Amino acid sequence: MKNYWDTAITFEEYIRIAKQRLENPSNQQEADYKQYYELGLQRIDRTLKKYVADEEQINLLNAKNFDGKILIISEAWCGDASATVPALVKFFEGHNEVRIFLRDSDTSLIDQFLTDGTQSIPKVLILDSDFNVKNSWGPRPKFGKELLMKFKADPEAYPREQFYNDLQIYYAKNRGKDAIQEIVELL
Fold this sequence. Notes:
Blueprint: H1 2-7, H2 11-23, H3 28-32, H4 34-50, H5 55-64, E1 69-74, H6 79-92, E2 98-102, E3 123-127, E4 133-137, H7 142-153, H8 160-174, H9 177-186
Parallel strand pairs: 1-2
Antiparallel strand pairs: 1-3, 3-4
Helix pairs in contact: 2-4, 4-6, 5-9, 7-8
C-alpha cells in the first residue's frame, strides 16, 4: 500500500491534471469525457467555495486520535467524486494527510476494492501509520446508495436522468457532510 501512497498525488495536482485533460486530452477516453471533466471541475469548485467543516465532526475526528492517512481512489470526471473528494480534502486538512490515486492510470488498486464487482469511485482507503488498510468507504453515502437502489429496482418508474438529478441535488445541499460522517465513524 505504501507504493500506491508514494505514487498518489495531492489534491492540487488532481485539479491540475483534470484541467489539463479537459483542455488537452491525451487519449480518446479523455476526449470523450470532456463534458464530464468540465462538470466535475465546476462541482469541485462549488464544493470548495461552499464547504464549511462541521464542528461536531471535527470534534469526533479529534476524539478518535487517528494518526493515519487517507488515500482516495478517484477521477475528476466522476460525479460522485466531484461532490465528495473536495469536501474530504478540506475536512482532513491540518489533521491527516490526504492523497489521491488516479483510478484510470492504474486499475490494480481499485481492483482490490471493488463495489459489487465494479470499479466504482471514489473509494476512500483509511490507512494506519504503517500503511495498512484499516477500513474503506465508497463510492457514495448511504442516501446516495438508496437512490441508486431505487433506480436499479425500477428504472422505468425512476429513470436514470431523475436518479442523476436527485443525486446531484442531494450532493449540492449536503456538501459532503454525510460522507465525512460515515468515514470518520470508520476511523
